[in-house]
């Protein structure tokens, strides 16, 4: 839900048509179901290899979102947290792993924020 709200901030800040963000998200729902199914399988098997974007690529994009927020004076707490999780996973040697490998960081009580 916080990701949705962050997306709405970006949408409105870019002066895109009112109501369009929700319609865009609704259109993504079938793809999201497929993504969540794939992530669930990766977590269950503990196999985080994949043929989609690497964690390193997601990290770059998320850092760009932080920069976008900073440039516009928008709160970036949410993307900061994502960057922190990704950086911890990358430092653990998972730069080329699938996004689902973040499960390991989230489930490790000894893993500390950077």
What do these coordinates show?
The protein is mainly α and 114 residues long. It has one domain (2-106): Orthogonal Bundle (N-(1-d-carboxylethyl)-l-norvaline Dehydrogenase, domain 2). Helices cover 67% and strands 0% of the residues. It is built from 5 helices and no strands. The longest helix is centred in the first third of the chain and has 26 residues, at 20-45.
Q: Count of DSSP E strands?
A: 0
CATH class: Mainly Alpha
- Radius of gyration using CA atoms only: 15 Å
Give the uncertain stretches in residue-range form: none
Number of helices, counting only DSSP H or I runs of 4 residues or more: 5
Mean pLDDT: 93
Helices, strands, pairings?
Layout: H1 2-13, H2 20-45, H3 55-72, H4 77-91, H5 102-106
Helix pairs in contact: 1-2, 3-4
């Amino acid at each position: 839900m916080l990701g949705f709200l962050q997306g709405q901030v970006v949408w409105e800040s870019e002066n895109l048509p009112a109501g369009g963000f929700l319609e865009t998200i609704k259109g993504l729902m079938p793809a999201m179901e497929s993504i969540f199914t794939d992530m669930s399988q990766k977590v269950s098997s503990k196999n985080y290899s994949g043929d989609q974007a690497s964690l390193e690529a997601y990290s770059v994009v998320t850092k760009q979102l932080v920069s976008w927020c900073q440039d516009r004076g928008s709160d970036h707490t949410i993307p900061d947290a994502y960057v922190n999780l990704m950086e911890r996973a990358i430092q653990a040697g998972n730069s080329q792993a699938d996004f689902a490998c973040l499960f390991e960081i989230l489930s490790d009580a000894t893993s500390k924020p950077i």
